[in-house]
Amino acid sequence: MGLEEVKVIGSRVSPFAARVMIAFNIKCVEYELIEENILNKSDLLLKSNPVYQKIPVLIHRQLPISESLVILHYIDEVWASGPSILPSDPYDRAVARFWAAYIDDKFFAAQLAILIAEGEEGKKGAAEEAAQILVLLEDAFTECSKGRKFFGGDRIGYLDIALGSFLAWVRVIHKMCGVRLIDECKNPKLFEWAQHFSAHVVVQDVLPETDELMDFAKLFVAKLHKPSG
């Protein structure tokens, strides 16, 4: 295989690494997952991504590519013969990029805020902020899906991967914090979309089980709450 070896420095508990794995499943590309301990970063990770020191990192042709959304673009361009991940229309592609950035900037932060919030009032405030974000994402789904099953239309695409990678954490937050983020009554379209996405063959073996992920989430939150020094 040599230069064409495809490796992913990632972890099954990381929603950002899940994006890369789902994309490769869509493209039917074989890859080697190098499991990274998020709480104890390896020398390989620090060397491959010295700027942010985060997963995932794609190593292709012995060259590292960092940041999950950047990697999705790379995969779509390099393995162009497989099903497209990004929309083909320039406007639709720009809209998808906008909402993917919004998801990473706002929805990820809202999930983290719920996990680390202390006390009922803190959790309630973080949950209310997340609810407002999901109202906008429900509208985005209506705009992008055009009445079909996924953000990408009839098949999973860029925005589906961007948001869907967080669904395992959505379930953990519900079980661990009692906060139901994607609600059948408040977000009916996203709720139905989440069922379709989670059941899809390219996703099923990627998103971790709730109990498995919750064990990690407890360690992660404990580390965040631990005083430095």
TrEMBL record:
GO terms for molecular function: glutathione transferase activity. It holds the Pfam family GST_N. Residues 4-83 form the GST N-terminal domain. PROSITE patterns: GST_CTER, GST_NTER. GO terms for cellular component: cytosol. It catalyses: RX + glutathione = an S-substituted glutathione + a halide anion + H(+). It is found in: Cytoplasm, Cytosol. One of its GO terms (biological process) is toxin catabolic process. Its EC number is 2.5.1.18. The keyword Cytoplasm applies. Residues 89-220 form the GST C-terminal domain. Keywords: Cytoplasm, Detoxification, Transferase. Belongs to the GST superfamily. Tau family. Is involved in the conjugation of reduced glutathione to a wide number of exogenous and endogenous hydrophobic electrophiles. This is Glutathione S-transferase. It comes from Sesamum alatum.
